[in-house]
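Data card: per-record layout.
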Amino acid sequence: MNMEQAFQTFLAESSELLQDMEDKLLGFDSCDDCAESVNSIFRAVHTIKGSAGLFGLDEIVAFTHVVESVLDDVRSGSFVLDEQLINLLLQCKDYIGKMVDSIDGEAVLMAPEDLTVQAVLEQALGVYLNTEHSTAATALVGIDDADTYQSVSVIESDSAMANENWHISVYFGTDVLRNGMDPLSFIRYLATLGSIVHIETVTDALPGIEDMDAESCYLGYEINFHSSASKSQIEEVFEFVREDCQLKILPPYAKVSEFIDVIDTIQNDELRLGEILVRCGTLTQRELDNLLEMQHAVKEGGTHRLIGEIVVEDGLASSEVVTAALHKQAQGKKAKEKQAQTVRVDAEKLDHLINLIGELVIAGAGVESEAHLTGIGNLMESAQTMTRLVEEVRESALNLRMVQIGETFNRFFRVVRDVSKELGKDIDLHIDGADTELDKTVIEKISDPLMHLVRNSIDHGIESPALRAQRNKPATGNVKLNAYHESGTIVIEVSDDGGGLNREKILQKAIANGLVSAEAELSVQDINKLIFEAGFSTAEAISNISGRGVGMDVVRRNIEALRGTVEIDSEYTVGTTIRIRLPLTLAIIDGFMMKVGDAFYVVPLDIVEECIELNTNHNVGHDGRSYINLRGEVLPFIRLGDYFSKTGGSAKRENIVVIKYGSLKAGFVVDELMGEFQTVIKPLGPLFERVPGISGSTILGSGEVALILDASSLIHLVMQRDGKAISAAAKQSALH
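The structure for this 736-residue chain is written out next.
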């Protein structure tokens, strides 16, 4: 790995480690193993510090060392990780992330105001540090670059301490300097994990002066090291040079009993010997991999050496530890461990595959259509087999793009925590349906609308503690995110147990802003939807969170751009639920095709309830409205031919396709039912993309174009048109 690759790896890993640190801090109050969470947070900061040190990023090293010192005191039990410290560490995490993002070349370029923030954070961290740590931190921050790169403190000690110490043998490769690595930087970083009791420089590989290459490294080191760090942590010090050195880490004899105690507590019965030794800390994973390769190479040569024998003979572990591991292995089951394997694929390659499969679906439909026209039995059977296989390929390809929404939901724990603290409210976030899957493209585009809705629930929805007390509500408010599948769509709900919508206030504000006239008669849903109008806000004061009327209209536009809808259920003083309904995928759907005149239309198959013939027995309304009595239920309908102005001779028999979208139900009157159809969704051009009632188009096997209907907007159109008449008809039906 060259220096540039190593640096890019550092940037990527730092982002992942900081996100893990945030997740552990936010979930600390509810975690099952608090000690492990603290260790995980410590490891994240420690790893960033060590990696930054290898690249000479002293600003990051200095700040993370102070954070690490505080976390080390938490690990030792000097004080607990309470809410105040969690808030401080979250701010430190944000600042470390900003430092990483500000790396330019070999320096961290921070603005003066950022350095002021750093000083404030270090001062706050200093409160938690005792004198010893404060001195160490000051020494690290205060030394100049020359001192840092020229010396490593070595504590001389008698050999009696050796049994308590690690022994590290590291021999650097000749090309380590050419690859941009400084051997002394690794020794210097090692000193941050503990005390170098003694170091011996090995110069046996040095050639004569006439044969010496100034750019080559010939040195090795034998190090006696006192530390409470694990073997893996010590090995991580040499991570970026691991392929260009010979490294052996021998544990202190005093750790034998600790290793055996860990082995006794291992619960997994299917671990092999090497895995047990890794689990207890005797071996690192890299050492085990090397041993397995060595064992395989020796086996091919005609002999066979057991892992336990190699470990003991090479001094990697004592015979007592290996014996304990063998005993543990003998107690367990000998079933083969199954390992899940994943492959990362570039998103563009995956999108290209989906597009190709979409074209394959269209071509397959054309082949099947032509096969039926020929009337040849064998050809039709082959075409049907191909269609079935194409459908399976399509389903498999779409599943590749399906991801769980839980990762998106989890990001809002930090949002709820920070915003609620800023507003002086106590709010808990609850998540349901985290394992619900939908298209990756949809998830990427729904994140911003969800952010607006969550912040709106915190600010407008949840009342102040005093008002909640007046309403006999618990002091802690609740915001809930939920996701589930329904009728071929995914439903995402943002709920709160706050004050609900004050419809009277909303209506007055809308009239004052000229959004509606004072004489307008609006339904409950119509009033609710006024909050999605541009520039609308009922906030009495403008803040950095709300009050400017920007946000909710963006939510509506973004959701509609995804062919989705947004609904509101709210009860004043009780709470509000905003429900987003989205298609599962934006690429390919199972459709139901209909025909009106010479035009074809498609709706998603999952929302089709049933198909019935329209006749006079259905009591079509005679008051200019269009609705029928469907088994005691009032069903409004729309004639697609009238809506799309399709002229032509009337069909002898008309059919109604009953559509259910969420809690709404309506019928589409068509001339002919064409049946199921696999549909590749093609976006409409700019000229037609905002035509109401149409969400896209598709190409049929015959080459003709069919319009994909936006069932949601059509159903809402019917409801707005016939709402009062339908309500009256429903009451009359109920009386009879």
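Known properties of this structure: Residues 131-162, 333-341 have pLDDT under 50 and may be disordered. The chain is about 45% helix and 20% strand.

See the next section for split statistics.
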